Amino acid sequence: MRKVSIFGATGSIGQNTIDLIRRAPEAYDVVALTGGANIARLAEDAIALRADLAVTAYDDRLPDLRAALEGSGVEAAAGQAALVEAAARPADWIMSAIVGAAGLAPGLEALKHGTTLALANKESLVCAGRLLLETAEQNGARLLPVDSEHSAVFQGLAGEDIEAVERIVITASGGAFRDWPLEDLPKATLAQASSHPNWDMGQRITIDSASMFNKALEVIETREYFGVRPDQIEVLVHPESLVHALVGFNDGALMAHLGAADMRHAIGYALHWPDRQHLPVERLDLARIGQLNFRAPDPARYPALRLAYEVMERGGMMGAAFNAAKEQALDEFIAGRIRFTDMTAVTEAVLERFSAESGLIDAAMTLDNVTRVDHLARQEAAGAAEKRIG
Ligand code: NAD
Ligand code: MG
């Protein structure tokens, strides 16, 4: 039996992971499940999967979690330190599916213990890619991509020499507003931004898909994970979301990965890697689909993409500042304090401000320093949002 833990178990990726594990309960020994405010979901799954431990991220929810787990034999814990402690518990495979920079500390802890980390939490690679990769290497741990595009690239590279790669193309659906007149974008509401044309995901990544901040994070994720240069990474709008990524080689070959828009494919690939096993995802009928469309992303519609290349150019801990500013701007939009298009303006203001701060951005990449940059960038973004309101 393989020992597995799921961080962010109550979210969209977490629930898809649980779906796969429940189909073969005899194969898995569940160590820890973690969640946030949805205590009922967390407790129900922890009991059903006979987990050793359930952790809520919120200290004040511990009494509720204890009550929900009473008599089940599942241990209850809460708070940041408990999340990190859960990541230190021996496991063969851990799913990192917390949303946001909050996933970094537990992910890093799992790698320190040599655990294989299936990484859906792209924000941690954007914030501290080098730190994660070095920690994995020093401890003989493995990082496996779960983002659909990165899983697709990873599969396209199997058996290939990275030196023969000319370019990596990741696709984007174009999000909720791909066909809107540009002048309507500032009026986009939260409900409109929270619906995705093809994928069923958590609210934050869905809004990030409409603004392309998600793809901006993924461009940086591609650079960190595969070690290619920024000028080798391209984004292609593909409204059908069936081609997830393409790898271009030095002989002109372009290897595409196709599959249904179902995250259980990428999760399952990381779960069974290096083997392939049967997965309950739809098989594509290309004759019925008939055609696939592609177009270049419009820089005026998706200014967030340009920011990703500026962040990579600047280097240091600019990724941590970028992600934190973006997370704060998203909070401000969700709270109704700024407009949809203000998210890019707020994030860009923070990047401009931080770019010259070499004492901060070029300090050693440690968890403490990344956390410091993250806090300061959130403050700065809140200030920039305030200015846009006033
Ligand atoms: P979600 O919002 O559905 O779930 C997030 C999970 O993280 C929940 O369990 C929540 O309780 C927990 N959480 C939230 N804030 C937390 C905090 N501060 N501390 C600890 N736990 C916290 O999100 P999701 O859509 O499942 O996305 C999870 C991660 O996977 C994100 O990094 C996202 O970018 C990535 N991802 C998601 C998809 C998708 O299809 N949903 C696809 C690719 C990548
Ligand atoms: Mg993706």
E-strand count: 11
Query: Strand pairing plus helix content: what structural class?
Result: alpha/beta
Low-confidence stretches: none
Q: What is the count of helical runs?
A: 17
The proportion of residues in beta strands is: 5-15%
Which whole number gives the mean pLDDT? 97
Helix-residue proportion: 40-55%
SSE run: EHEHEHEHEHEHEHEHHHEEEHHHHHHH
> How would you sum up the major sheet?
7 strands, parallel
Shape assignment: globular
How many angstroms separate the termini? 58 Å
Cofactors, ions, other ligands: nicotinamide-adenine-dinucleotide, magnesium ion
Q: Order of strands in the sheet with the most strands?
A: 4-3-2-1-5-6-7
**What Rg do the Cα atoms give?**
20 Å
Jot down its keywords.
4-stranded mixed beta sheet, 11 strands, alpha/beta, globular, 390 residues, binds nicotinamide-adenine-dinucleotide, 7-stranded parallel beta sheet, binds magnesium ion
Structural summary, described in words:
By secondary structure, the protein is α/β, with parallel strands linked by helices. It has 17 helices and 11 strands. It has helices at 12-22, 39-48, 62-69, 80-88, 104-112, 122-138, 148-157, 190-193, 203-211, 213-226, 264-272, 286-289, 304-314, 318-334, 342-355, 358-361, 367-389, and strands at residues 2-7, 28-35, 53-56, 75-78, 93-96, 116-119, 143-145, 165-172, 233-237, 243-249, 254-258. The chain has a 7-stranded parallel sheet, sandwiched between helices. It has a 4-stranded mixed sheet with strand order 9-8-10-11, covered by helices on one side. Helix 1 (12-22) links the parallel strand 1 (2-7) and strand 2 (28-35). Helix 15 packs across helix 17 (367-389). The termini are far apart. Bound molecules: nicotinamide-adenine-dinucleotide and magnesium ion. Magnesium ion binds at residues 147-149, 218.
